[in-house]
Design a protein that fits this description.
Layout: H1 22-38, H2 47-54, H3 58-86, H4 88-107, H5 112-140, H6 144-176, H7 180-183, H8 185-199, H9 213-236, H10 241-263, H11 277-306, H12 312-317, H13 320-340, H14 342-360, H15 369-396, H16 404-439, H17 444-473
Helix pairs in contact: 1-5, 1-6, 1-8, 2-3, 3-4, 3-5, 3-9, 3-16, 4-5, 4-8, 5-6, 5-16, 6-13, 6-15, 9-10, 9-16, 11-15, 11-16, 11-17, 13-14, 13-15, 14-15, 14-17, 16-17
């Protein structure tokens, strides 16, 4: 990336709205991104209700999540490059329309197969929407101060979406039924589709290079195989033949992708982008943060229902403190970055996140919200607010216009693959620990609590590693 946008004079990108409309456009783009992040976690609490009504076995329920994550994580890089090639606004609208239609289809599902198909379409549409929306944000805000504020809002949306998934999933399922977790996307997505064309003019394609079909095929297949292998490892074990076969397929496809890209005249992912240290470190950090937070919200929602006896509504409402402090903190992070720099802000936020996760690991089996859960929830909210904002800024800081869709695809891919990795590994750790204690004669609540504690501590280790990476390798200043 030859020149950072932060270093350029204030220039309105091709197709950008007038300056007085940029912040309204940001609100609409952030709302769409909120839906994308939300849908990765909002179904967690609704899974028991879905299984009962659609007669899905417990093993098949995980596919309600996997069917969304697989195409989302696998198609993100292709979606980003398609946006650069055919126009970010156009791909954003196509992705949003597909997401709305798939959400309506999921809410109307009368069988497990229909629901899984709709979830797959949601994931594929999200893979077009997410990188396009982030690319539009980086084009609309080119001055350093405005861009910092805009990416601060964007990062906050990513963090809030993860936390709000558990909150809204519980509230909607408890009050209206599981169908509501999908139907809620329809009116919100319709607002986005109607409003955005009035706020963002048609943009010209950022690159005229032909699409790298061999590269797109191999990287998409490789990423899908990676996520599938991690999901299979979580359910079947990491030594199961299916898991090993998927891992081997992923390694082969990704190896071929590297060979193809080195020889391509117009590669899907120019490896030169990784010469930008900020982008590389930012993506590594976001992968680790995605791994830690996805495991956190899954384990926390199950712990509250299986051990503490919360119903879906109570489990959702218990996330209000975490989500609330995250929103408040994220709004002030750009000002902190302006004073202390991205590196220090990111390291401090990750340290707080690691501390909050470790605190969750000490929560007892008879925990109460005020005495045991509120403290770590607030600490995690503060850490996540800073980590998502600073990590996103670092990941896209040097993206020029022709690579903004690629940069958006990379950071979203890092979060999704990291989330799949963290969920697969830490869920396996928790299950193994619980089973071991039950077999040795421990009571089920204590065994479950110990298993979830192992998952929380593992997530804390991931956050601490991310802090170390940022401290050692992130650019200073």
């Amino acid at each position: 990336m030859s020149q950072t946008l932060a270093a350029r004079p204030e220039v309105v990108a091709p197709g950008a709205p007038r300056s007085e409309h940029r912040w309204w456009a940001l609100a609409v783009l952030a709302l769409a991104q909120f839906l994308v992040v939300l849908d990765a976690s909002i179904v967690n609490i609704a899974l028991p209700s879905i299984g009962a009504q659609l007669r899905l076995e417990e093993g098949a329920l995980s596919w309600v999540i996997t069917a969304y994550v697989l195409p989302f994580g696998g198609l993100l890089l292709l979606g980003g490059r398609l946006a650069d090639r055919y126009g970010h606004r156009r791909l954003f609208l196509v992705g949003t329309a597909g997401f709305v239609a798939a959400s309506a289809l999921a809410g109307l599902a009368t069988s497990g197969g229909m629901l899984l198909g709709a979830r797959a379409l949601q994931g594929a549409s999200a893979a077009l929407l997410a990188p396009s929306s982030l690319a539009l944000v980086t084009q609309l805000f080119t001055a350093a101060r405005d861009r910092s504020r805009a990416l601060g809002i964007w990062g906050a949306v990513a963090g809030v979406g993860s936390a709000a998934g558990v909150l809204l999933g519980g509230v909607l399922t408890g009050a209206l039924g599981w169908e509501a977790v999908f139907f809620v996307n329809v009116p919100v997505g319709a607002v986005v589709l109607v409003a955005l064309p009035f706020l963002v003019a048609k943009d010209r394609p950022a690159t005229a290079a032909p699409l790298d079909v061999p590269g797109a095929t191999t990287i998409t297949g490789g990423l899908v195989a990676v996520v599938a292998a991690l999901s299979a490892g979580e359910r079947l074990g990491f030594t199961h033949p299916l898991t090993l076969g998927l891992a081997a397929a992923a390694a082969a496809l990704l190896t071929v992708f590297v060979l193809v890209e080195r020889r391509s005249s117009s590669p899907l992912v120019p490896f030169s982008v990784f010469a930008d240290r900020a982008l590389t470190v930012g993506n590594v950090v976001m992968l680790l943060v995605g791994a830690a937070t996805t495991a956190l919200f899954f384990a926390l929602s199950v712990f509250m229902q299986a051990v503490l006896g919360y119903d879906a509504l109570a489990a959702g409402l218990s996330q209000l403190p975490l989500a609330g402090v995250l929103v408040v903190v994220a709004g002030g992070v750009p000002a902190v970055i302006a004073k202390t720099g991205v590196r220090r802000t990111l390291v401090g936020s990750l340290a707080l996140l690691a501390a909050g996760l470790a605190w969750f690991g000490a929560v007892p089996s008879d925990a109460t919200l005020l005495a045991d859960l509120l403290g770590p929830s607030l600490l995690v909210g503060i850490g996540l607010g800073g980590a998502f904002v600073a990590g996103t800024q670092l990941s896209v800081h040097g993206a020029d216009e022709g690579e903004s869709g690629l940069a958006g695809g990379l950071v979203n891919t890092s979060q999704q693959v990291g989330g799949a990795l963290g969920l697969a590994v830490l869920a396996t750790v928790a299950a193994t620990r619980t089973q071991s204690l039950v077999e040795s004669g421990a009571a089920v609540p204590e065994a479950l609590t110990s298993g979830f504690a192992a998952a929380f501590v593992g997530a804390a280790v991931l956050a601490a590693v991310a802090a170390g990476v940022a401290w050692r390798f992130a650019p200073r200043g």
